[in-house]
Every structure is written in C-alpha cells, then in structure tokens.
Amino acid sequence: MTVLNRKLRRQVRESRGLLASIVLILSIGVACLVGMLATWRNLDRALDDYYARCRMADFWVDLDRAPVPDLREACAVDGVAEVRDRLQFPVTVEGLDGERQVEGLALSLPAAPHPVLCGVQLVRGHWFDGESRDEVIVSDKFAEARGLGPGDEVDLVLDGRQERFRVVGTALSAEHVYLLPPGDLAPDPRHYGLFFLPRQRLAELIDREGAANSIVGRFTPEGAREPEAVLDDLARRLDDFGVFAAYPRADQPSHVAISSEMKQLRSFAVWLSTIFFSVAVLVLVVLMSRTVQRERTLIGTLLALGTPRRTLALHYVGLGLVVGLAGAAVGCVLGQWISSAVTTMYRGFFEFPALDPRLYPDLLALATACAAGCAGLGALVGMRAVFRLRPAEAMRPAPPERGGRVWLERVAWLWARLPARSRMVLRNLGRHPMRTSVGVLASALACAIVVLALGWVDVLDDMLAFQFDKVQRADVSLTLADERDRAAVDELRRLPGVLHAEGSSAVACVFEHGARRRRGAVQGIHRDAELTVPHDAAGARVPVPATGLLMTERLAAQLGVGEGDVLTVREVAGERRQVEARIARVVQTYIGMAVYADFDWLERALGRTGTVAQVDLATGRDPAERRALLAELRRRPGVQAVQETSFVQRRVEEEFLDLMYVFLGVYVLFAGAILLGTVLTVSWIAVAERQREIATLRAIGWRAREVARSFLLESLAVTLAGAVPGLLLGQGLMDLMARSFQNDLFSMPSRIAGATFVHALGLAVLFVLVAHALVGRSIRRLSWVAELGAKE
C-alpha cells in the first residue's frame, strides 16, 4: 500500500492539469448546492423567527365594514383558534418632495404595547405614549428612504382628511416582508410605506368607530389541515358584512413572493448541482478508462504477483476521491461566498429584522459526500473493463484499436467530397464514441444553462411589453376614492395634457363553478376601449363581448372552466347580487388575474347605475405638461391613487434587470466551466494518446497550429452536435420553470428570442476557443523528434 500510495501521489502530480479541469466542474456543482441551499436556509430561518416574533397570522379576511361585537360572534367557527379585528385604509402622504405621489397603507395597532397577531417589531423609537393623538409608527424602510426618524412630522390624508402626525418610532411588519404598492411589480420604499396608528385614532379618521374592515386569525391544528373549508365557512358567516377576500397564508402576497423565491433557490440548487455532478462523473469515466488502459500491463503484473483486486481498486478509486475531495474543498469555500453574497443582496428586497449568512456543517458534509461519491463512482465505472481481465491477459499489451469505416464513410458521394482534414476529424470522433458522447452531452447541458440564463431577460422584456404595450396601455391610471358617475371621466378628459380618458368599474366578487370558489374582481370596460385591451395567449386582441366574461387562463384553470362554460358571479359588497355568466374567451395577462366584461352589460346584470371606480388616461409627451397634470390629479380630493405606467416599468427594470444580469453572468460562467472542463479533459487525453500521430504530422510538414486546428475542429464539431439539442433543452427548461413559478401575483411567458439562441451558440464556441488555447500550447510544447525516435 505504501508503494501504491507513492504511485498515487506521483500520478496526481503528473496529471494535475487533467485533474484540475475535473475539479473545476465538481467545485461548481458543490458551490451551487452549498450556496443556494445555504441561502434558502438563511431565508427560511429568518422567516420562521420573524413570523414567531410578530405572531404571523394563518389567514386574512378583508371586509367592507362590520361591527366588532357581531364580527367576533361570527368568527366563532370550528377550525379558528384566534382572531384579531383591525382597521386598514389607503393613505396619501403630503409635503414630501418628488414628482410621484407618495402613498401607503394605514393599519391599526393597540394603543398599549402587547403581543397581537400580525404585530410589529420596533426598530427605532418607542410605542405610542397615549398622551397625544398625533402619533404614528412608520415602516422602517420608508423612513430610511425618506430620512425620517422619531420626532419628525408627516402629513397624512385619510378619507379626504389631512392630519399632521409625529413619528414616534419605526417598525418592521412580518406580513409585509415584501411590500408591493398596489398594481406595482417591485417594492418602492421611497413612494410607498406603512403607517401604524392607534386603533381609536384611525377609527375616528375613517369613520369606523366600533367597526372593523380586516380580520387576521390563526387556525387550530384541525383547521390548518383544511384551511379552504374553514375559510369558506367563515366567509359565509361574514357574508352580510361584504367579504372582499378571504385567503390563507399560502396566498398572502408577501408570503407568496418570498416562498416563490425560496422554492426557486431549492429547485436551482438541485438541478444545477445534478448537471455538474453528472458531467464530472462522465468525464472521470473517460479519464479513468484511459488511465487504466495505459497501465494495463502494470495492473496485470500486480495481479499475477498476488496483489488483491480490492487493493488495486481502492488505489484507483483513491485517485477519484482525491479529485472529489479537492472539488468539495474548493466548492464549499465558493458556495459559502455565494451564500453570503446572495443573502446580503436579499436584504435589499425583503424586510427582515435579521438576515445573516450562516455556516451549515451538515450541508458542507452533504456536498462533500456528493462530490466524493460522484468521483468514486466515475473511477469505479471507468476501470471496470480492465479489472474484469485475467492477470495473464491483462499483462499483455492491449490490442490495437479497431479501425474500419465510420458510418459517414458509407455515404460515398459525400465522403469523397470532404477535405482530408475533415475526414480525419470525423474518423477520430467516430472511433471514440464514449469520449464523443461525453463531449456532446456536456455541450448540450452547457448550452441549455446559457439559454436559460439569457432567456430570463427575454421573459422580462416580453412580460413588460405584453402587459404595458398591449393590455394596459394607459399612461396614467387613477383609482377613485369612491365610485363616481361617468361625468367624472368627462371632467378628467378636459384637463390640460389629457388626450383620451376611459372609465372602468371594478366589482369585487366570488366566482363559483361547482365545488370550486375563487375570490376576485370583474373589471367592466367599454367595448371600444383603447387603454385596457384584453389579448389572448398568441398576442392577438380580443374584443369585449356584449355579454359574458373574458377570464385569464390561470383563474380559468383554478376554477376548472373553459370557453362556453357558465359560472356564478356573486357580488361581495353593496347589494351582493349574483349573476350566471358565460366564459366568452380565455385571455392572457401576466400581472394579477383579471376578469373583463362589457361595462354596460355588467352594470345592468348587477343592477348598478354606471359607476366608475378607475379612470385610465392617455397623456401628451411633453414632460412639463405631464408634471403639471400629475400635480393637479394629486390635489383632487376624489382621487385615491395615481399610478404612472412608465414609472412602474422603470422600477421593474431597475429592481430586476440589474439582479438578472448578475445571475446571468454567474450562470454563463457555470456553463463555461462545464465546457472548459470537458473540452480540456477530452482534448488533453486525445493529445496524450495520439502523440505519435501528432509527431508524424509534424514530421511531414504540418505546423503546430495546423495540428492544433484539427483538434479544435473536433471540439467544435462535438460542441455544435450538442448545441442543437441543448438549445431545445434550454427552451424546455424555461417552459417548465415558467409553469412552476406561476402564482396569483404574476405569471411568466416562456418565449425566448431567436437572438438568444445565437448568443448561446456564440458563447459555447467562445469557451471552446479559450480551452483550445491551452490545448494548442500543449501541442506546441510536444517534442515530436523524441516521440519519433527509435525505441530499443
């Protein structure tokens, strides 16, 4: 064993270049596993701790208005362990600089600090002292973005009344880890915040004394097993109070956002590390096959002298384990760095009191075991052919490799027209099917990763273009504080800078189809509308039918309905009428789950009088005129919220594109590691096996760069052969991910632009060229005169 150990050390030293390329592949696999799973654990641990501190609710119910005594009596249902009634109301902040309106959500809290469901965690300042009626606690990120702190003052407009409040503290809320402004796609702490007021003070401001419009609660263990049934029962008992929405934690917007991100991290960790480990195993099989074939006579001799097969097997497995452990060591360090960087980055997206990277020894041990196991498996598979031979047979040199024609030679007319160099390349590839197959597979996987990485930019561009250039085409959207008649639209249309105005209604309702129920809203739009235009999945405009509904495909799938089906639409506020409606068409949207209907038909069906809840405006392009119009709109008391479409798009691009480019660069480097490691290993093995051939070519006049070009052509042929299925695999992975990450907040298209496939192919070729710069160096350094020298 001492002799074999010395041989192992010498072998590692002599083959360090080959082994380093495999270590590179393994280390990236380990880094993906450690980095992403550690980040997922960091988020999961921080989230659980945060939810426990703030007593996160299990469910939410949004109401119109309900007397507190009646509300508490109605909530006494089986499956509900605890409820808390509260008040919430949209708020506008006045007096802050900036072109865009500053908005927020006012939430009630007890006047004295004590643990409640969906409580807050103070960051700075103190709780309400109860001596003043003008105290407010502000969400910490909003306060930080606006430079506010304890002692500063803010002017809040609630229900048309402007009041000045003194900030006594800043806080974090577990139910708003990911705080999205209404209708927005990214957090905007500079223009949207939370404002916590004492319950009694908020009730006075919005005329809700003795009433509540929101419920948060927790399930019993039995209720948690069937949350939908419990919420349906609760919603029926609260029906008289106008239930706008009732949903469990799994559907709560903030929780959906962070749980989707965590799900994505786990998914990426598994399939990315699997790709790298699989490629490493295959490359090790190629390397070990070549190694044991080269040492075939030595193995036969040792077996003949009585060395146990198990001892020799352990020796060669040890070579694989050295590679595995080296890859694990490098990968664990790199993975911990990735985890630290990504966790720190998430602090800018999610609001946690503490989100710090941690070291997880069990995760490092798991990754090390995976790397060592894959390396050991590759070594075992690679050496099994020689170890099956009898000692006497193994002691003889291996028979010459079988020649013969490759399959393409049978196509005589084509083969005869190929240049001599191309025929030589094709013969070499055809006579080493295992090595060629590994190269093709590595190329396919690398191209798939690049397509997936570059495709995310296409997905975001496609989603924004579809949503804001086709469906929601308004320059400015207004949400009215109270429903108004159509005269409000005419009034807004006459404002300077407004080119066109369209009003729409919004009816909160419950959709019922058989046993399935979903809460949502129907948006009533005019059939000649130009600012809200439904489209189908193919991108074609869908006209609003005279009767019936246009329903988004995600909501239709949840209700189990299709075109032509009839469902019940029941209003949850006001008269609470219900109507049987036919699904006229299934349409596409990427933000929310909209349902459209003809404005006049919807008003008649529900016995309404043509009321408008939202107004969309098309405005001129003059910046000064646009600023003046926005200022005028914000001053109007009937306008609750003003949303500028260009600002929403810009926010999404600022928040997500920069992050996307970071991940894009990382994934491209990962794909490059696969190609570099595979091409280097396969090419260096080929150079070592064909040294006499290379020397002969040099002797007859070939230059070193011409010989290197032949090897480059082999690698390019293998890479291009794997690229085509790799591009298709990348599109398939994008389709799978787009389906798996859909939720009630958004969905993603999966169309990838043709230019993305070209770029992926170009990057694959670039990595091959980089690898062959090193291969060409090896060929130039080869002493062809010594290789052709006569041997005694």
Keywords:
792 residues, 6-stranded mixed β-barrel, alpha+beta
Description:
By secondary structure, this protein is of the alpha+beta class. It has 24 helices and 20 strands. The strands form three sheets. Strands 3-4-9-6-8-7 form a six-stranded mixed barrel. Helix 2 (16-54) runs antiparallel to helix 20 (645-689), helix 10 (309-346) packs antiparallel against helix 11 and helix 15 (433-471) packs antiparallel against helix 20 (645-689). The radius of gyration is 34 Å and the shape is elongated.
SSE diagram, text form:
Elements: H1 2-14, H2 16-54, E1 59-67, H3 68-74, E2 80-86, E3 88-94, E4 102-109, E5 120-125, E6 135-139, H4 140-146, E7 153-158, E8 161-173, E9 192-198, H5 199-205, E10 211-219, H6 221-225, H7 227-237, E11 243-248, H8 253-294, H9 296-304, H10 309-346, H11 361-387, H12 391-395, H13 412-415, H14 420-430, H15 433-471, E12 476-484, H16 487-493, E13 498-513, E14 516-525, E15 549-552, H17 553-559, E16 566-571, E17 578-587, E18 595-598, H18 599-605, E19 612-619, H19 623-635, E20 639-644, H20 645-689, H21 691-699, H22 704-740, H23 754-781, H24 784-787
Parallel strand pairs: 4-9, 6-8, 14-18, 15-17
Antiparallel strand pairs: 1-10, 1-11, 2-10, 3-4, 3-7, 5-8, 6-9, 7-8, 12-19, 12-20, 13-14, 13-16, 13-19, 15-18, 16-17
